[in-house]
């Protein structure tokens, strides 16, 4: 099928944006490069690694320049599951949000290009280090989380203009849940087949109800706005980090994920609560609506997206290259998810929407 004029124009804008704002240099690729040489290859000569924030095949470093300067930068390598086009698009969104003063880490002004290809052939993004802490379960922290997410949605309205996102994996929460449920079925095996059928039915029912309602407009989504991806700075501002899952979709997708992250998932652990933490749920929702009140349409479909998020988390929360809990405990965890997804149990029904 021929590409329409609008799509051609978008691709042209995307190419101009990357060429004008974020050129990707390609130094010679080395097979065994030490950290100082790698930093030099991305424009950070005489910088050193202060701390490893993430190790393994996708390192994230906190780096410091030589001498008395106190400036610190975070250097992050492209994650293996992202294509280069996805990574470039995420960096472009980050840049536009930072330029607009959005709730994201600031970008360094003196780095020659960002992102940049290192001597190892990989792409790296850099941003200014933001001292802070992750939100606790106190209501003020969670209201700040909700407000930052709303600000992200409002300021990012045009951040994807001319930027193409070609995801290799599903990002829509309904599609992602369907993608994950077969893995859950393997873990449950025959002893938990009834739970898998029940979760599949819950997801299908929620999807049908969402489809029969008026579709809310798409915004730019963070993709994983859980407390672990939020920093409360010393200046009292909430900042969203880890933009690896940025994509288009309805705002209630992000909001639902935040709500289950604080209200349904066991804090700092693996598994689900026996019942909703309603104060935590309502604090996030209150903070969000203080900046971006939900429309009537979003109010109507939010419970559907909460169910989709719960079904997605049924695997996402419990599996990471292997089950985090004993497979014998999976049926009980699924029972908790099914109870949390019951319409009469959803806190959204007891919250006033404007």
From TrEMBL:
Pfam family of the protein (one): APH
Xref: InterPro entries: Aminoglycoside_PTrfase, Kinase-like_dom_sf, Pseudomonas-type_ThrB
Entry keywords, A to Z: Transferase
Example of a GO MF term: amino acid kinase activity
Recorded superkingdom: Bacteria
Residue span, Aminoglycoside phosphotransferase domain: 57-293
PANTHER family with a match to the protein in the record: AMINOGLYCOSIDE PHOSPHOTRANSFERASE DOMAIN-CONTAINING PROTEIN (PTHR21064:SF6), AMINOGLYCOSIDE PHOSPHOTRANSFERASE DOMAIN-CONTAINING PROTEIN-RELATED (PTHR21064)
Family, similarity comment: Belongs to the pseudomonas-type ThrB family.
Protein name per its UniProtKB record: Phosphotransferase
């Amino acid at each position: 099928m021929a590409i329409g004029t609008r799509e051609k124009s978008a691709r042209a804008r995307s190419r101009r944006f990357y060429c004008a704002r974020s050129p990707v240099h390609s130094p010679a690729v080395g097979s065994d490069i030490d950290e100082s040489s790698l930093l030099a290859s991305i424009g950070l000569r005489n910088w050193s690694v202060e701390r490893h924030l993430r190790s393994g095949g996708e390192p994230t470093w906190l780096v410091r320049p030589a001498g008395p300067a106190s400036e610190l930068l975070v250097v992050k390598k492209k994650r293996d599951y992202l294509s280069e086009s996805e990574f470039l698009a995420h960096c472009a969104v980050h840049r536009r949000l930072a330029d607009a003063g959005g709730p994201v880490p600031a970008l360094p002004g003196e780095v020659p290009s960002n992102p940049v290809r290192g001597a190892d052939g990989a792409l790296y993004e850099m941003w200014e280090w933001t001292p802070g802490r992750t939100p606790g379960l106190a209501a003020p922290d969670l209201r700040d989380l909700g407000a930052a997410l709303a600000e992200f949605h409002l300021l990012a309205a045009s951040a994807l203009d001319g930027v193409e996102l070609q995801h290799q994996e599903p990002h829509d929460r309904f599609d992602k849940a369907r993608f994950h449920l077969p893995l859950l079925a393997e873990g449950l095996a025959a002893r938990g087949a009834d739970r898998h059928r029940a979760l599949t039915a819950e997801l299908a029912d929620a999807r049908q109800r969402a489809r029969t309602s008026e579709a809310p407009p798409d915004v730019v989504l963070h993709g994983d706005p859980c407390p672990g991806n939020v920093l409360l700075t010393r200046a009292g501002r909430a900042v969203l980090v880890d933009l690896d899952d940025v994509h288009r979709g309805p705002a209630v997708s992000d909001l639902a994920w935040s709500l289950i992250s604080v209200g349904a998932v066991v804090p700092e652990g693996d598994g689900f609560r026996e019942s909703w933490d309603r104060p935590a749920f309502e604090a996030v929702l209150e903070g969000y609506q203080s900046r971006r009140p939900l429309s009537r349409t979003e109010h109507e479909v939010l419970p559907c997206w909460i169910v989709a998020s719960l079904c997605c988390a049924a695997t996402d929360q419990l599996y990471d290259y292997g089950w985090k809990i004993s497979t014998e405990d999976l049926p009980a965890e699924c029972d908790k998810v099914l109870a949390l997804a019951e319409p009469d149990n959803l806190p959204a029904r007891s919250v006033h929407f404007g």
